[in-house]
Automatic annotation (TrEMBL):
InterPro entries: CheY-like_superfamily, OmpR/PhoB-type_DNA-bd, Sig_transdc_resp-reg_C-effctor, Sig_transdc_resp-reg_receiver, WalR-like, WH-like_DNA-bd_sf. This is Stage 0 sporulation protein A homolog. The keyword Transcription regulation applies. The lineage of its organism: Bacteria, Bacillati, Bacillota, Clostridia, Eubacteriales. Residues 130-231 form the OmpR/PhoB-type domain. SMART domains: REC, Trans_reg_C.
Length: 238
């Protein structure tokens, strides 16, 4: 059940909103509605939703624009809902930070199933950040309290930005982050570098934590998209 999950539906078609709302409420969700981009952003700030169902074609701005604005502030799951079916539109939506994509006309049951799948994935992918976490049979150990990192038992030094990027990636090991997402999530909106500067940071992190930086185990390149964490989580120490 989706009990107590706050879901924001953003669509300018009343009938679609009502159908989705009906199905979600049967699953126990708390549903909020928005019919244009400005209303959606205001609602997002006010209710802090657990998930957003977002139509791409709105009267005042595009769903891609809304997604981009939201992604600068939040990792809330977003399902794109649209009549656009061409591959370019789908890829653009995913690159803007959408978690899934469903085309109109659609089955409400399929939408509900995708929402459940997203919440299951979120529950599975978050690494518990305890006092100390280790990866690949203690090859890499991170002391969360001291913010110290050990590679094969030896302390290594990361810059503040390198540390933030690494922590963002390892917290969601099954999530592929685009460069733009790493900037907004790890480095913050005040970061004044270009998105390609992220590649330089990643290269420098690899030099410090990888046994073979040319064949990385921890920061994996997902070609055409960005990076994900590939280390095998071992155990939680207190």
């Amino acid at each position: 059940m989706l009990e107590e999950k706050k879901v924001l539906i953003v669509d300018d078609e009343n009938k679609i909103v009502e159908v989705i709302k009906s199905y979600l409420e049967k699953e126990g969700a708390i549903v909020f509605e928005a019919y244009d981009g400005n209303q959606a952003l205001e609602m997002f700030e006010r209710i802090n939703p657990d998930l957003i169902v977002l139509d791409l074609m709105l009267p005042d701005m595009t769903g891609e624009e809304i997604c981009s604005i939201v992604r600068k502030k939040s990792r809330v799951p977003i399902i794109m809902l649209t009549a656009k079916i061409d591959e370019k539109s789908i890829i653009l939506g995913l690159h803007m930070g959408a978690d899934d994509y469903i085309t109109k006309p659609f089955s409400p049951r399929e939408l509900i199933a995708r929402i459940y799948a997203i919440f299951r994935r979120l529950n599975e992918e978050v690494v518990p950040l305890s006092n100390e976490i280790s990866f690949n049979d203690n090859d890499l150990v991170i002391d969360m309290l001291k913010k110290e990192i050990r590679k094969n038992g030896e302390n290594i030094a990361l810059t503040s930005r390198q540390y933030k990027i690494l922590m963002t990636l390892l917290k969601y090991p099954n999530k592929t982050f685009t460069r733009e997402e790493l900037i907004s999530t790890a480095l913050g909106d005040d970061y004044d570098g270009y998105d390609r500067n992220v590649d330089t940071h990643v290269k420098n992190i690899r030099q410090k934590i990888e046994t073979n930086p040319k064949d990385p185990q921890y920061i994996i390149t997902v070609h055409g998209t960005g990076y994900r964490f590939g280390g095998e989580f071992n155990e939680e120490k207190s």
